[in-house]
Amino acid sequence: MIEPKAFVEKAVAKLRSVEGRAVAAVSGGIDSTTAAILAYRALRERLTPVMIDTGFMRKGEVNSVSTALRPLIPIRVIDARKDFISQLYGKSDAEEKRKTFRELFYRKLGEVVKEVGATHLVQGTIAADWVETAGGIKTQHNVLLQLGLDPKELYGFSVVEPLVELYKDEVRAVARYLGVPEELVRRQPFPGPGLLVRVLGTISEEKLELCREANYLTENYLADLNFSQYFAVVFEAEGELRDGVKFYRVRATGVKGDNRVYGKIVSIGWNHKDLESVRQLVMKLSAGDVTHVMIKVAEGKGKYAIGIRAVTTDDFMTADFAKIPEERLMELGEALASIPQVGEVLYDVTSKPPATIELE
Ligand code: XMP
Question: What is the Cα–Cα distance from 266 to 81, expressed in whole angstroms?
């Protein structure tokens, strides 16, 4: 564990050596917020902190985050929803979606960099991001240098990553030291590409809006349980039943050894709620090509499945699925199933490995 005071002094001194102007990309997550505050300490009016509204943020998030950050940094919101939506609707391959998102995201930042006459981009990449990308587990949207991409050539700026050696709990310690309000420090992580990675399969407006609503309900219902991360995903409920196990068409990511794999999502009936039998079933299925096992919690009349995902973890490199109390799970299931487009509500009971935390 690093010593926050010494870390901050060193990081600020290093950031001061950045010449000219810089732009900081802030999502409202603790990593990018901490990186931007450090940079603001070092550069003051030479820094332009921006939040890009991609259209894939959670309900009300752009407003609430920018309001919470204004006392700390002079954040500017850039509305890029049209660009993201027009390029991403209709796309279905998970890696292609991530890559398209990354390209649009950095192109947009490149425009801001040019507009304010900057040369550098400050971002909150942390160790876990590049460790997992380098391991081939997934292409994190914010990893450029480590993938051999040259941001200067591609987008016209050099990247500065003051937190690149830190893990999440260290970032939180630094944030507290910097006086970031506790509600931001404790915020659960939200992936850079946002709800994009929570709409499985083809992106459409209907699925995205359903995903936003399902995430809103799920976060509100589970907030007081203090899990490390909890959210909802949306996918088509079509699938095929084999020996009491439903295999869905859409695929989801998992990890095997050091590699990221695409596997099947399956669901089983509520009679499997005994955790030991679930554990054995997950082991058996994940030996094949299943990456996420879910239990059916509630049924509705629509065509989409909602997967409730909640995990506990220290470092996000491995994670246990969270044991949501049965009553709470049922209540949330019924609330989600009452949305007209929802056909089934499922509860993901897979740990990482063999699953990933997100499903894409
Ligand atoms: P996985 O799904 O790989 O997630 O087990 C580990 C942690 O990383 C977050 N995550 C991302 N964060 N950009 C980010 O900034 C991304 O592209 C991205 N993908 C996953 C995920 O929410 C979890 O906390």
Answer: 33
